[in-house]
Design a protein that fits this description.
Length: 222
């Protein structure tokens, strides 16, 4: 069916409340997954790099398993399998948990690569002057690792925004589900899907510019 641009704007104005609400759910879910996954990922990266052998083996198995599992499977498992096991989570909580776990495995590998790129002599020098491992990580390793991690972390954060579209499968009222509900009423498939894609692009564009801003702030002056 053919629709004019004016008709699309009219239907968009009518559907503005659910679209804005869905966009808010998408942003909050992605932000929680990125923040939680990044924090967990730092721990995973430290365990992979400096942990004892049993801890490294378990962490390696965790990262390989999670990275090799589709996000959709993780989302369904977080909601249905945990529910069957007696862990009652709302669709939103289960979706954020799945995205955070997936994010942590990727961030863990990114952090591991950044830490291993730092010369071992710097850690030995820190030990020589009496710094604890926490102080060594906070004052020596972390500032250097951030500069190497940022570009890849931005890509991972953008992936989390795109992966959040899968939360609609378990009934989370995100932007995609809100758009589909409007489409089912108006039959304007292409216009609303294009508009949803534009909003997803805008969110990822903001993440990219935030990453560039942090990169400029942490750059060593030449």
């Amino acid at each position: 069916m053919d629709f004019t641009f004016g008709q699309f704007l009219h239907e968009l104005w009518i559907a503005r409340a659910p679209i804005v609400q869905g966009l808010g759910v998408t942003i909050v879910a992605a932000a929680l997954a990125i923040v939680t996954g990044s924090i967990l990922g730092v721990g995973v990266g430290l365990a992979l790099t400096y942990g004892a052998k049993p801890l490294r083996w378990m962490t390696r198995a965790y990262t390989d398993f999670i990275r090799g599992t589709p996000v959709l499977v993780l989302v369904l498992a977080s909601y249905y399998i945990l529910g069957a096991a007696g862990v009652q989570l709302s669709p939103f909580q289960a979706g954020v948990l799945a995205l955070a776990v997936f994010c942590s495995s990727h961030v863990g590998e990114i952090v591991r690569g950044a830490l291993q790129a730092i010369p071992v002599g710097q850690i030995e020098a820190a030990k020589a002057i009496g710094l604890t491992f926490s102080q060594t990580f906070l004052y020596i390793l972390l500032p250097q690792a951030i500069r190497q991690v940022l570009p890849t972390w931005v890509n991972t954060a953008a992936e989390m925004v795109k992966a959040s579209t899968l939360l609609s499968i378990i009934g989370v009222g995100d932007l995609l589900l809100a758009s589909q509900e409007v489409i089912s009423r108006t039959f304007m498939s292409l216009p609303f899907y294009f508009f949803a894609g534009f909003l997803y692009f805008t969110a990822n564009f903001a993440i990219e510019h935030f990453g560039r801003y942090v990169e400029r702030k942490t750059k060593i002056p030449s």
